[in-house]
Design goal:
Blueprint: H1 2-11, H2 25-62, E1 69-72, E2 77-83, E3 87-93, E4 96-101, E5 105-108
Antiparallel strand pairs: 1-2, 1-5, 2-3, 3-4
């Protein structure tokens, strides 16, 4: 136990050649460079594409109009019957209408439904 404490105390003395490279302000900059590089990579690979996708979805929701054929995130296909600020009334069959919050509309349906 005594020899371990002596070694630990000797290593903590500092001032040797091991402490010299990180002593200056340039050493601190070099040590943070990998973190900055990782953040830039994450920004271009994850954050920026997600922001573009959200912007495109928001524009699609703003362009909704009565008569558009849509697909919800739950997989329900139908035609927009009425629009409010937050709620869209979707006609899914004859005399069957459901209300869906705007943000749960996934996409426009471009191809006709099967069986219709």
């Amino acid at each position: 136990m005594q020899s371990f404490l002596t070694m630990a105390w000797a290593q903590d003395a500092g001032g040797g050649p091991a402490a010299a490279p990180s002593a200056g302000p340039g050493g601190m900059l070099v040590s943070f460079l990998p973190f900055a590089l990782i953040f830039v990579i994450f920004y271009f690979l994850l954050i920026l594409p997600q922001q573009r996708k959200q912007k495109k979805h928001r524009a699609m929701l703003e362009a909704l109009k009565k008569g558009d054929r849509i697909l919800t995130t739950g997989g329900i296909m139908g035609t927009v019957a009425a629009l409010n600020k937050d709620v869209v009334t979707v006609q899914v069959a004859d005399n069957v209408r459901i209300k869906v919050r705007r943000e749960y509309i996934a996409e426009f349906q471009t191809e006709p439904e099967e069986g219709a």
